[in-house]
Specification:
The chain is an alpha+beta fold. The protein contains 12 helices and 16 strands. The strands form 5 sheets. It has a 4-stranded antiparallel β-sheet with strand order 5-6-7-8. Helix 1 packs across helix 6 and helix 3 packs across helix 4. It is elongated, with a radius of gyration of 28 Å. The chain starts with a helix and ends in a 6-residue tail after the last helix.
Length: 528
């Protein structure tokens, strides 16, 4: 009686979950294809330019006071072609302001212009005569107005697709999803047949994602089918629906394995239907182990999403008074004694510091290797950063490490004495995978709260992610059982092949099973 009920339950649940699992499998099969067939762009990284201090004719303090700015949150130097500007973040505004280092003049719609400038470089590449290669030092041409020159450079490009539209995003939306992590960003749309959009973060000169018609279509399909976002009106209940179907698939696979172990196949003889059912029985027992892997990890992953992701709420911003900031480039260059690629201001242990990125080496003909594709290379070069006290111009030993620890203590509310280790991370691997996007970051490990780890980005003062030992269960489940990272030793291509092969097996198992079921309803085997 119990055995008969198990047969009945197995058949019923198989029919219930057949279509959901089939849709999951089809979209899962296409996912590795999408990650490999992406919109073609020239690069995802920009080489930093070397700053010639002689271009800075108006100190930061004077430029701010000239424009009536009493306080600000952050500042750094950026270049649009051969024109240098102070990029300033003001209080209560997502848009950044730009002021010429030569005369303090404000660049109108500066953030809007700079977003286009960055997007075009990511899409089409850097011009050979651009300021951006770090082995060149360019002086600002003071004979012409730098703001007009910068605007003309962006708005009147000599070649390339024209810009169709620019929009500032401060929240994630249906196309730019939370998996992209970075906010705020600009969406720069180009007038091309593929309708490509480049998302850029102007505050870090950073590429986020490129989306064209094909990728947009697949992302929509994947969202509707794989993550069931057509149920978004249910809120968190959508995840419960996902979990229910995944748990039912897991239970059905368990019942199928149990039935296989306690029963024997009938001899098919010349009965083609029985022969097909017998072959399906033996192949399904192998495929069902991967059904268990996919369904368990998928259910666990959906369950983990019930917990709110609050990483975007953790960042450090400190208002600086314009009158108190004295930028002495002569002193800075004397202390650093290296070529400077950027200067910004940070707050650390109740003091202000110049955060100075420098270029190692002095040979301008030395070839530098810059990564171009974060998804393929999964790594980024960490710049050399020096910290100089903004008041007495003394260098802070291990400044980058200390600032990372300071950020972690602000986020964790733990004392610095509880820090177990501090490590620079330049690769997306292990527990800090590709989903986190930001590089380079610092990993600050604590002895408390299940050995919690804070991954912090010193260039932005933001938290990338917090992880503790309890999070590893879900992360490892999803990485190894769902995304087949156990194949990492063979490379991404073989990992994608493994995922696609075993997902394809799920499709074949379900389709053949449905065909055999339909045939059995219309024709009973003679030897049954």
């Amino acid at each position: 009686m119990i055995r008969k009920n198990i047969y009945k339950w197995h058949r019923t649940t198989s029919l219930i979950i057949a279509i959901p699992v089939l849709l999951w499998a089809i979209s899962g099969f296409l996912h590795p294809i999408m990650t490999n067939i992406r919109p073609k762009i020239a690069t995802q990284f920009i080489k930093p330019a070397v700053i010639d201090s002689s271009t800075i004719k108006m100190p930061l303090q004077e430029a701010l006071q000239k424009n009536g700015i009493d306080s600000f949150l952050s500042v750094r130097l950026i270049a649009i072609d051969t024109n240098w500007f102070y990029q300033v973040k003001l209080l209560h505004s997502p848009e950044l302001e730009y002021y010429s280092v030569s005369n303090g003049r404000k660049l109108k719609k500066g953030d809007w212009l700079y977003a286009q400038y960055l997007a075009r470089i990511f899409l089409e590449g850097q011009k050979k005569d651009s300021i951006l290669p770090s082995n060149r030092i360019i002086n600002t041409n003071l004979q012409s107005d730098c703001c007009d020159a910068a605007s003309n450079c962006v708005l009147k490009p000599k070649k390339g697709a024209p810009v169709k539209d620019i929009a500032l995003l401060t929240t994630f939306d249906a196309e730019y999803k939370s998996i992209n992590r970075l906010l705020p960003v600009y969406k720069v749309s180009f007038e091309r047949p593929d309708a490509i959009r480049i998302y850029v973060e102007t505050g870090q000169d950073r590429f986020s994602v490129a989306i064209d018609r094909n990728r947009a279509w697949f992302s929509t399909f994947f969202s509707l089918v794989h993550t069931m976002e057509w149920l978004n009106m249910l809120g968190k209940a959508r995840l419960l629906v996902e979990m229910a179907f995944a748990a039912l698939a897991f239970g059905t696979a368990i019942m199928g394995i149990y039935i296989f172990l306690i029963t024997k196949s009938k001899k098919p003889g010349k009965n083609q239907l029985l022969r097909a059912r017998r072959n399906h029985r033996y192949t399904a027992i192998i495929f069902s182990f991967f059904t268990l892997m996919f369904s368990f990890s998928g259910c666990f992953h959906a369950f983990s999403k019930l917990k709110e992701d609050t990483r975007d709420q953790y960042f450090v911003e400190h208002p600086f008074a314009s009158a108190s900031i004295q930028q002495d480039m002569v002193k800075i260059r004397q202390i650093v004694k290296k070529q400077i690629t950027n200067i910004s201001l940070v707050y650390l242990d109740n003091q202000s510091y110049w955060q100075i990125k420098v270029k190692e080496g002095t040979k301008t003909n030395k070839k530098e290797i810059t990564p171009k594709d974060l998804m393929k290379e999964m790594s980024a070069t960490a710049p050399t950063v020096v910290y100089i006290n903004a008041k007495d111009y003394t260098m802070l030993p291990e400044g980058e490490k200390k600032y990372a620890q300071y950020l972690a203590t602000q986020f964790s509310k733990q004392d610095v004495s509880t820090i177990l280790s501090t490590e620079l991370i330049t690769k997306l691997e292990g527990e800090y995978g590709f989903a986190n996007k930001r590089l380079p970051v610092w990993k600050i490990s604590y002895t408390v709260n299940h050995q919690e780890r804070y991954y912090v980005e010193t260039s932005s003062g933001k938290l990338s992610v917090r992880i503790d030992n309890t999070d590893l269960w879900e992360a490892n489940s999803f990485n190894y059982l769902h995304k087949h990272h156990f194949m990492d030793f063979a490379g991404k291509s073989w990992r994608d092949f493994s995922t696609m092969f075993w997902v394809a097996s799920q499709i074949a198992m379900i389709v053949i099973g449905l065909i055999l079921y339909a045939r059995s309803q219309f024709k009973k085997p003679k030897n049954a």
